[in-house]
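Q: I have 401 residues here and want to know how they pack in 3D. Can you give me a structure?
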Amino acid sequence: MAPTILCLASYFKGGAFLEECKRLGCHTILITSQDLEHEAWPREAIDEFFVMPFANLFKQPDITNAVSFLARNRKIDRIIALDDFDVETVADLREHLRMPGMGGSTARYFRDKLAMRVQARDEGIPVPEFVHVLNYDDVRDYMHRVPGPWVLKPRSEASSMGIRKVNSAEELWPILDELGDRQSFYVLEKFVPGDVFHVDSVVWNKKVLFTVCSKYGLPPMAVYQGGGVFITGNLPYHAPEEQALQALNREVIAAMGMVRGVTHAEFIRAEADGTFHFLEIAARVGGANIDLMLEHATGINLWREWARLELAHLNKQEYELPPTHQEYAGLVVSLARQPWPDTSAYNDPELVWRLQKEHHVGFIAASPDHDRVQQLIGEYAGRIAQDFMASAPPKEGERPV
């Protein structure tokens, strides 16, 4: 009997995961929100397709009742969260159905920015100084000890959503009044100027089998909140900063208790002293087409490998990472003024992918030469800003690119 994999997706992503599951002989079920029903899901790889109102994907007991109803006449073998917002929901579903995979307590380390910071600090991993926005005496003491500016971060949002920079105590208190009963769902953290990096990994039986370290052109918060061109590219292999990030990433993954799956972690290198600090980690594939950039650099598609390792565990088999190569790729993405920008003038031979999305423009350049990739994405960023770039303030509930 074919194993049944149920995927929960509150955002349009993870098609390659579903395709790989189907290729490996699974019966696939997708539950998503009504507003995503007509997206370009790989329908040929989905055996059963269900939609719910967006709010009900997270609402209890609605989602538990819905999945339990499906389980009455289907033997569900695994439940997978395709988006960051689904991680805790799926963890709770696994707990309810007593199903293998990350449970509720561990999932908090990959969703709750306070939980992951406390855990990292307790394990001796450098993090920017922070305080839970809970006890006002603690908050006052923190602001007295740690000079501003700070960043006020929601504990369980994705990427840079909802983050606010705060320059003084006088600026903070009205914001907390505005948040009201929601303020305990926030953490206040020291703003650390510096370069931001992301590290993407495949983990099997608590061992990190595959890692790529990359550097953002601008911190995601700056792009998301202030507009601009999103840039990232993988670092030179075996360079000192790459080796330092690899080691720190392994420490973080071990501290958070990841057993198997994929991770996307972010770190900042402090401008003041060059120290790397842990920012956050997610139990998912990186967004904004980072997965495609890494595939062009290494030959590894993280969505497909995630599916392969889940099926290996289900079938009590050993997972083996396929052969990889060590080349370089860079990604450039921006909002565009034009509905469908004409990018035909961007025609360098190293250009391997173009983003096809309304009011967006984006490219991936790949080469064995790191310097050539960096040159191209730097040039493209400047050209895009002149030819196409548009910016708009994020709307309430809006997701990053």
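Q: Anything worth noting?
A: The longest strand covers residues 194-204. The first helix runs from residue 15 to 23.
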